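HUMAN: Can I see a protein plus its fold?

ASSISTANT:
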Amino acid sequence: MMKKFAATGLAVAITTVAALSTGASEAQAKKWYWSPGAAAAGGFVAGAVIGSALAAPRYAPPPAYVEPGPVYYGPPEPWTPAWYEYCSSKYRTFNPETGYYFYRPGRARFCQ
């Protein structure tokens, strides 16, 4: 691919030199202080600049690592084995038959 762009740049330079050097007569060149050599050099420089710009490698930036955010889990679904284990370990007064625990004397709350 790089050779293709280099050849394109060279073709642009040659075309520019040919157009500039043959399009102006000797009298016009002297009037504008141009000579065929200056036109050729200008065309070569323009072609080299354009060709090197086209042939320059384009690198993509390396992918950035994005650390995944924390995952929060709520309490398990009621009446599952994980729920029984969770509520039993969290509340000493948990009653597995009713699903309630006592948070104050005489006050019960459903474990969620």
